[in-house]
Amino acid sequence: LFNPPTATFDYMLLEFEAVGGGSTLVEHVLTGLPLTLLAFAGENVTGDTPPIQINVNQLCELDITSTVTPAQIGFASGSATVSVTGGVPPYSYQWNDPFMQTTATMFGVFPGFYTCVVTDSQGCVDEIQVFVPLQMGVDPTRLDIPFCDNPEPYSILAFVKALTVANAVAYQWEFRDLDNNLISEYTRVGGNPWIRLAWVDGLELGETYNVRIRAQVGAEWGVYDVVCAITIKNDIPLTELRPEYTPTNAQGNEYVFCDWAIAFALEGAEAYEWRFDPDTDPTNGNEIHYIRNAPNPSLRLSWVNGLIPGTTYNVAIRAQFGGQFGDFGNVLPLTISLPPPVNVRPQFCNVTLAPNAVVLCQSVCTADFYQWEFVNTETNVVSVANRPNYGILLNWNGISPALSPGNYDVRVRVQQSGVMGPFGQVCNFTIDAGPQVGGGTEQAARSLEVSGFKLFPNPNKGQQFRIQMDGLDNEGHMIHVRVFDSFGKAVAESEFGEMGEFVDREILLPQNLASGLYLVNVFVDGERFATERMIVH
Fold this sequence. Notes:
CATH topology of the largest domain: Immunoglobulin-like
CATH superfamily of the largest domain: Immunoglobulins
Helix content: under 10%
CATH architecture of the largest domain: Sandwich
Number of helices: 1
Radius of gyration: 42 Å
CATH class of the largest domain: Mainly Beta
Structural class: mainly beta
């Protein structure tokens, strides 16, 4: 009996006769057989090969070992893992924990004794009892091996890692200078042992710090242990305009002063400096610089004084870390359009107006002034007026020559940063010859001041108030509200963005204002929209 020929086991020649239609059983104990099915055949005089059935019985010898992780007091945070040798893989597992887990590792258990039953693929069964102990105290930790005392300096944007502590819910990092002065402590909750150096306040470029770390398990903090040194590179990462913001705005149009430009954000940056250069020489003194002292890489062009419409600027940005600015990044173009044409708002066209009516045109950001042109269609007399905002009184004494009753073709254009834009579409209206509405110029001026604006409740208790504005252009706006007391001191300020023609916003005051008279100034896109007296009682 043999197969394969190299198998080593004892053998015996078995002689028997097969009775036709029947079967013959021959028993013999064989040792050293492989655990695969062997092929045997017997041959009689007829050349037929009857089947022979062989049963191989192996010995059940499983060797099981275990490792455990202690559980924290009050937490089902323990675990146990079994390792098996012997028998025939694969193995199946059955734990007797409350969840009857069926993997080699049992997770999430309280301290105690647990049994795991292991079965191999041949049905051999064995078991092991393990004990999950109670964790006493919190294991020490420190900077992980690759980071501890590494002579290579790290970027301020680099991530570093603590040695992991089982079941930790937080890690606290302590940074001291080489004179042992405490610079900062940074705590990251959630059990994540990684932090980014830029997240830690007070770290400076080019400096070396001694770092200690401790972990929190449950409600218990460990103690600071091993000190590791870490050095931060004396350079700052670069940033630049995002690709969708160069050379045009995010919509693919040339920029207007209301638009935002956005650079790549650098986490941990304290400020961003923008440089606008009308040529390719950043050293000839005609550059315009703007520093936004906030960790925000976006900039509204209306904030930058001196930008000229119709100009393409070469823009570079740099970031500040640890009180120090880095180098400017890639220089990319940004094109500002010429002042747009401005139209009289449609509700004032093809109508008859009172002699002291208020007429409004579209508003633009950072206008030097709006120039109104009135052409009397009967006399062809042209009257002109320059206004600092987008509203005008038809009987305002700044219109030269003064308007008289009749029919007029009206156009408006705007000047920005010394550049005059084109006139908008012609709007025709008629000035009535009847009496003025509202009681004269003084009342008309008041109407212009508060047209489309409400502040309520007024009086109020000095905790909050609401403003409503109407008649704005149907686009994005930046609203700036400032509250002054009777001595001219600013006591509250709020800035927010809104979209559309109508604004309805509650203004919360930082502290209860004392009883008295206050002045509320409201600016829209950098231009004064309304001034209102507010009484607090």
